[in-house]
Specification:
Order of helices and strands: HHH
Number of helices: 3
Strand content: under 5%
Radius of gyration: 18 Å
Helix content: over 70%
Number of strands: 0
Largest sheet: none
Number of domains: 1
Structural class: mainly alpha
Length: about 80
């Protein structure tokens, strides 16, 4: 009985962790899209950052978002 409870608890932990990784990945990837296309869409806050900074930070957000997707799919916690 104790073993079943621990197994269920572990599965729930993995599910919550995977969901959190996917949501965070979505946020980082969305931020990357806004940073890459902010000047085309005439978003003043993005335009104020400058092109070089927005592409640099957008690239970092894109790479980290991809990493979070990979980690969520892998489920090795």
């Amino acid at each position: 009985m104790e073993h079943e409870f621990r197994d269920k608890q572990r599965k729930n932990y993995i599910l919550v962790r995977m969901a959190r990784d996917m949501v965070m990945a979505l946020l980082y990837l969305t931020m990357a899209v806004f940073l890459f296309f902010g000047e085309r869409w005439k978003i003043e806050q993005i335009m104020a950052l400058g092109t070089a900074f927005s592409y640099f930070f957008g690239s970092i957000c894109l790479l980290y978002g991809i990493f979070r997707v990979y980690r969520g799919i892998k489920r090795d916690y």
